Amino acid sequence: MAQGSDSNDTTYKSPSPGSRPSSSDDVKKVMRREKNRIAAQKSRMRQTQKADSLHLESENLEKENAALRKEVKQLTEEAKYLSSVLSSHEPLCTGLAPQTPDLLYPPHHGSYHQPHIAVPHYQH
Protein backbone atom coordinates (compact mmCIF):
# COMPACT_ATOMS: atom_id res chain seq x y z
CA MET A 1 0.00 0.00 0.00
CA ALA A 2 1.37 3.39 -0.93
CA GLN A 3 2.24 5.76 1.84
CA GLY A 4 -0.40 8.42 2.44
CA SER A 5 -3.20 6.45 0.71
CA ASP A 6 -4.69 5.06 3.91
CA SER A 7 -8.39 5.95 4.17
CA ASN A 8 -7.95 6.45 7.90
CA ASP A 9 -5.26 9.08 7.39
CA THR A 10 -6.28 12.08 9.47
CA THR A 11 -2.99 13.96 9.39
CA TYR A 12 -3.27 17.67 9.00
CA LYS A 13 -2.21 19.15 5.67
CA SER A 14 -1.12 22.73 5.58
CA PRO A 15 -3.60 25.16 4.05
CA SER A 16 -2.87 26.97 0.85
CA PRO A 17 -0.62 30.03 1.25
CA GLY A 18 -2.34 33.21 2.28
CA SER A 19 -5.28 31.60 4.11
CA ARG A 20 -5.37 30.69 7.76
CA PRO A 21 -8.22 28.33 8.70
CA SER A 22 -9.69 28.63 12.14
CA SER A 23 -9.84 25.74 14.57
CA SER A 24 -13.61 25.36 13.89
CA ASP A 25 -12.77 24.78 10.21
CA ASP A 26 -10.34 22.04 11.27
CA VAL A 27 -13.00 20.41 13.44
CA LYS A 28 -15.52 20.57 10.58
CA LYS A 29 -12.99 19.02 8.21
CA VAL A 30 -12.20 16.19 10.63
CA MET A 31 -15.90 15.58 11.25
CA ARG A 32 -16.61 15.56 7.50
CA ARG A 33 -13.79 13.09 6.90
CA GLU A 34 -15.04 10.82 9.68
CA LYS A 35 -18.59 10.96 8.32
CA ASN A 36 -17.31 10.23 4.82
CA ARG A 37 -15.21 7.31 6.12
CA ILE A 38 -18.24 5.77 7.85
CA ALA A 39 -20.42 6.27 4.76
CA ALA A 40 -17.79 4.62 2.56
CA GLN A 41 -17.51 1.71 5.00
CA LYS A 42 -21.30 1.22 4.98
CA SER A 43 -21.34 1.41 1.19
CA ARG A 44 -18.66 -1.26 0.91
CA MET A 45 -20.57 -3.45 3.38
CA ARG A 46 -23.80 -3.10 1.38
CA GLN A 47 -21.92 -3.89 -1.80
CA THR A 48 -20.43 -7.04 -0.24
CA GLN A 49 -23.84 -8.15 1.07
CA LYS A 50 -25.39 -7.62 -2.35
CA ALA A 51 -22.63 -9.65 -4.01
CA ASP A 52 -23.11 -12.46 -1.45
CA SER A 53 -26.86 -12.41 -2.02
CA LEU A 54 -26.43 -12.58 -5.80
CA HIS A 55 -23.97 -15.45 -5.40
CA LEU A 56 -26.45 -17.44 -3.28
CA GLU A 57 -29.27 -16.71 -5.72
CA SER A 58 -27.06 -17.83 -8.60
CA GLU A 59 -26.24 -21.10 -6.84
CA ASN A 60 -29.92 -21.76 -6.10
CA LEU A 61 -30.92 -21.04 -9.70
CA GLU A 62 -28.19 -23.37 -10.97
CA LYS A 63 -29.49 -26.16 -8.70
CA GLU A 64 -33.06 -25.54 -9.85
CA ASN A 65 -31.94 -25.51 -13.48
CA ALA A 66 -30.14 -28.85 -13.03
CA ALA A 67 -33.23 -30.38 -11.40
CA LEU A 68 -35.46 -29.12 -14.21
CA ARG A 69 -33.07 -30.46 -16.86
CA LYS A 70 -33.12 -33.84 -15.11
CA GLU A 71 -36.93 -33.79 -15.07
CA VAL A 72 -37.06 -32.88 -18.77
CA LYS A 73 -34.72 -35.77 -19.55
CA GLN A 74 -36.90 -38.21 -17.55
CA LEU A 75 -40.10 -36.97 -19.17
CA THR A 76 -38.54 -37.20 -22.64
CA GLU A 77 -37.51 -40.81 -21.95
CA GLU A 78 -41.01 -41.58 -20.63
CA ALA A 79 -42.58 -40.02 -23.73
CA LYS A 80 -40.33 -42.14 -25.98
CA TYR A 81 -41.25 -45.27 -24.03
CA LEU A 82 -44.98 -44.55 -24.16
CA SER A 83 -44.75 -43.76 -27.86
CA SER A 84 -43.05 -47.11 -28.49
CA VAL A 85 -45.68 -48.93 -26.42
CA LEU A 86 -48.41 -47.20 -28.43
CA SER A 87 -46.68 -48.02 -31.72
CA SER A 88 -46.42 -51.70 -30.82
CA HIS A 89 -50.05 -51.77 -29.64
CA GLU A 90 -51.62 -49.97 -32.63
CA PRO A 91 -51.59 -52.98 -34.97
CA LEU A 92 -53.34 -55.09 -32.33
CA CYS A 93 -56.01 -52.58 -31.39
CA THR A 94 -59.13 -52.40 -33.56
CA GLY A 95 -60.36 -49.33 -31.71
CA LEU A 96 -57.60 -47.21 -33.21
CA ALA A 97 -58.44 -47.98 -36.85
CA PRO A 98 -58.73 -44.85 -38.98
CA GLN A 99 -62.17 -43.37 -38.51
CA THR A 100 -64.17 -40.96 -40.57
CA PRO A 101 -65.68 -37.95 -38.86
CA ASP A 102 -69.13 -39.62 -39.15
CA LEU A 103 -67.97 -42.44 -36.94
CA LEU A 104 -66.49 -40.13 -34.35
CA TYR A 105 -69.86 -38.45 -33.88
CA PRO A 106 -72.71 -40.83 -34.72
CA PRO A 107 -75.69 -39.28 -36.47
CA HIS A 108 -78.63 -38.27 -34.31
CA HIS A 109 -81.38 -40.80 -34.99
CA GLY A 110 -84.56 -41.58 -33.15
CA SER A 111 -82.97 -44.70 -31.67
CA TYR A 112 -80.44 -42.57 -29.80
CA HIS A 113 -83.03 -40.08 -28.72
CA GLN A 114 -84.08 -40.51 -25.13
CA PRO A 115 -87.58 -39.37 -24.25
CA HIS A 116 -87.74 -36.48 -21.86
CA ILE A 117 -88.45 -37.52 -18.33
CA ALA A 118 -91.30 -35.61 -16.79
CA VAL A 119 -90.35 -34.22 -13.41
CA PRO A 120 -93.27 -33.38 -11.18
CA HIS A 121 -93.39 -29.81 -10.02
CA TYR A 122 -94.06 -29.50 -6.35
CA GLN A 123 -96.29 -26.73 -5.22
CA HIS A 124 -95.43 -24.84 -2.10
Structure notes:
This protein is mainly α and 124 residues long. The protein has helices at residues 23-89, 101-104.
Radius of gyration: 42 Å
Q: Based on DSSP secondary structure assignment, what is the total number of beta strands?
A: 0
Span between N and C termini?
Answer: 99 Å
Mean pLDDT over the residues = 78
Encode the helix/strand succession as letters.
HH
Q: Gist?
A:
With 124 residues, this protein is mostly helical. The protein has helices at 23-89, 101-104.
Task: Identify the notable features of this structure and list them briefly.
124 residues; mainly alpha; rod-shaped; 0% strand
Topology:
Blueprint: H1 23-89, H2 101-104
